Amino acid sequence: MTYRRLLLMLLAAGCCTGYVFAQANWNSSLHKNRQGKEYWYGKANGGFENWTNVPIDSIGCVECHGPADANGNPYPADYTPDCADCHPVPVYSPDSIEVSQCLDCHSRQKTEAVSLGYGDVHRDAGKRCWDCHTNNDMHGPPAPMLNSMLEPRGIEADCEECHTTAGGTLPDHSAYDPAMHNGKIHCSSCHAQTVLACYNCHFESQVETHIKRHKQPIHGFVILANREKDGKVYPMSFQSLTNAGDAFVAFGPFASHTIASEGRTCSDCHSNTNIQSYNSTGVMRFATWNESDSTLSYMKGVVPMPADYQRSWRMDFLTYNGSTGNPMSPADKDWSKIGKDTWDGHQMFFASPLTKAQMAKLGFDTTLVTSVEAVPGAPVPDEYALSQNFPNPFNPSTKISFKLPASSEVTLKVYNMLGEEVMTVIEAQGMAAGSYTVTVDAASLPSGVYLFKLITPGFTEARKMVLLK
Fold it and tell me: 420 burial class (0-12, 13-18, 19+ CB within 10 angstroms)?
C-alpha cells in the first residue's frame, strides 16, 4: 500500500484532524513547489540564468532531497515532493520526525551544526525545528503562493514569539541596546555567531556532472543590512557563482541558527576594522584570493553593507581548473581567479544596504559614498550609453544615467565650457554590467553650461547640462 493511499484512508476515516488542518496549504507551499530556487535563479528577476541560458529544471537543483525519505526508502529518479519527505508512515506525530530530514535539504544549517560545530542556544536546549517553526512555516501560509521564504509571510517564527519582557523571558537590554537604536536592530544581529556562505559555486560542474562544487564554506562573519520584512538591521549572506568567465552574486537575509546567549558589544560594530578598511581604501574588499598558496582570505566579524556597495564591494571570483567530474572537496586547491573582483550581475532581494545615516553612526567616512544606483530588474545592456541628465536645466541636483554592457572601470567628470574639470562624480571605479543612475549635486557651482563626460576603457561620451540657480 502506498503512503499516499494510506494517508487518504486515514483522512477518510476522520483521523488526525490536526494533521488535516496543517496540510490545508500544502499544495501551494514552498516545500511542495520549491519556487524559491526559480525565483532567484530565473531570468525574470535578473537571475544567473541570464548569463548561463540554462533552465533550472535541467540542472538538478529543484528536486532537493536527501538519500532517503522518512521511511528509509531511496528516492526514485522521477521524485516529486511528498509528505514522506518529513513524515514517516503510518500516522503523523511530531515525535516521529527526525531533524536529519530537515537538514538533508537545509544544508547550510547542517553545515553550521554538524560540519562546523557551531552551538545554538535553542538547539543546545533540545529544541527541534518544529518547536519554533509554525505549521504555516512548514506547510505554507494561505494563498497566494510565495516566491521565497524570505517574503514577509514566509517565516512566522521570530525571537519575539517566545522572548518577551512581559513573560520574563527577555533580559533587560537597556545597557546593550541604547535608545539610539530605536528598536531597529534585530536580536540576531547581536546574537548570531556567524552567517554562512558557500564561496563561489562552479556552475560548469553543476551543469556537466550535477556536482554542487564550491571553493569552500566560509563563516565567522555577519553582513548587516536592512531587512525588508520589518525594516530592522538583520544578518545577510550571499551566494557567488561563476560560469564561462561570468561572475554573479545574490545577497539576501540569512536566518543564522548559531545564536549565542551573549551578544556583541558596541566596538564589534562601531568603527571596527572592516569599517576602517573602507575608510582608508574607499572599498569594502570582502574576499581576496592568494595565488601563492591557493587560499582565500575574507573579512571576519561584523561587515556592514555600505550604501554604495555596488561600487565599493569587492570579492575575487574564482573558477575550478580540474575535471568537473572530480569529487567536491573544500581542500581542493585547483582554483584560480577569473580576473574579476566585481560582478557581471547581482541581486539583493528582501533587503537593502545600510543608509548613509546608518553608516555615519557606525563610523564610516560617508564622504566616500557615491550615490550610484543600479536600475533594478533591468536586462544587461547590449552597448554602452550615456543619457541626457534629468531634469535639465536643474538646480542644484540632477540625475545622470548610463549603461555598461560589461564590467568596466568607470569615471564620470564635470567640466566647464573652458574645458576645466570642476567635479569628479565617479573616479576609476570598477562596476558590473548594468544600467545605472547617479545623482550629481552641483550646489557648489555657479550657474552656467557644463559638460559631463563618461569615460571607460571601451567608451567615452560627453553631454551638455545647464545649471540655473
Answer: exposed
Distances 255 to 112, 187, 223, 434 between C-alpha atoms, Å? 11, 11, 12, 29
What SS3 class is residue 323? Answer: coil
pLDDT at 447: 95
Sign of CA dihedral 327, 328, 333, 339: positive
Question: Rounded distance, CA 201 to CA 330, Å?
Answer: 12
Please report how many Cα atoms fall inside a 13 Å half-sphere around the Cα of residue 234, on the Cβ side.
Answer: 20
Those residues whose C-beta lies under 8 Å from the C-beta of residue 77, and which sit 6 or more positions away, are none
State how far the alpha carbon of 310 is from the alpha carbons of 168, 305, 372, in Å.
43, 10, 8
Q: Residue 109 burial by CB count (10 A; 0-12/13-18/19+): exposed, middle or buried?
A: buried
- Average pLDDT of the chain is 88
User: For residue 276, what pLDDT is reported?
Assistant: 97
Please, are residues 9 and 3 in contact by the beta-carbon 8 Å criterion?
no
C-alpha cell at 438: 547617479
CB 89 within 8 A of CB 71: yes
Over 80: is that where the pLDDT of 61 sits? no
Among 197, 223, 194, CA closest to 119: 194
Handedness of CA 127, 128, 130, 132 (dihedral sign): positive
pLDDT in tens, 105-128: 899 999 999 999 999 999 999 999
The answer to whether the beta carbons of residues 155 and 221 sit under 8 Å apart is: no
90 has pLDDT over 80: no
465, 454 in Cβ contact below 8 A?
Answer: no
Query: Which CB contacts under 8 angstroms, 24+ apart, belong to 90-99?
Result: 90/6, 90/10, 91/10, 91/15, 91/16, 92/16, 92/18, 92/19, 92/22, 94/128, 94/130, 97/70, 97/128, 97/130, 98/70, 99/128, 99/129
User: Which cell numbers hold the place of 398?
Assistant: 540632477
Is 395:467 a contact under the CB 8 Å cutoff? yes
Dist. CA 199–CA 194, nearest whole Å? 15
Cβ pair 179, 62 in contact under 8 A: no
- The domain segmentation of the chain, as residue ranges, is 1-146, 181-369, 372-467
Please state, for a pLDDT cut of 90, what percent of the chain lies above it: 57
- For 44, left (φ over 0), alpha (ψ -120 to 50), or beta? alpha
State the pairing for strand pair 214-227/448-456: unpaired
Whether domain 372-467 has CATH 2.60.40.1930: yes
**DSSP character string of 207-246:** HHH----EEEEEEEEEEEEEETTTS-EEEEEEEEEEETTE
- The 10s digit of each residue's pLDDT in 295-308 is 999 999 999 999 88
Q: Which amino acid is at 232?
A: K
